[in-house]
Amino acid sequence: MKNTAESFLGVTDSIQEVFVNNQETSLTTQQQHQAIAQVLEAIHALNTAAQISTNGISQLKSGTEKLKITAEHLKLMV
After folding, report:
1. CA–CA separation, 6 vs 45, rounded Å?
2. What pLDDT is stored for residue 5 in this prediction?
3. Rounded Cα distance, 10 and 14, in Å
4. What is the pTM of this model?
């Protein structure tokens, strides 16, 4: 009887340990999910910033070309 009771306690302890390990694994998985979501959000923000920067560079190039043409016209007038 004593051995049977000790065996059941051992099984109970093992089950409890598995339960705790599963909870820790679940928590770790949730944290990894949140971290991945944050990385994806950062990548999206970088993509948006790159697009804005590219548009700004295009506008600057266009403005520079217009300024160059205007300067050439002014040279011809003088």
Report:
1. 58
2. 79
3. 6
4. 0.64
Residue 32 CA to residue 28 CA, distance in Å, equals: 6
Half-sphere exposure of 46 (CA within 13 A, CB side): 6
pLDDT per residue as tens, the chain (78 positions): 778 878 888 899 999 999 999 999 999 999 999 999 999 999 999 999 999 999 999 999 999 999 999 999 998 887
Alpha helices, DSSP H, located in 1-78: 2-77
57: Cα within 13 Å, side-chain hemisphere: 6
d(CA 34, CA 41): 10
Which DSSP letter does residue 1 get?
A: -
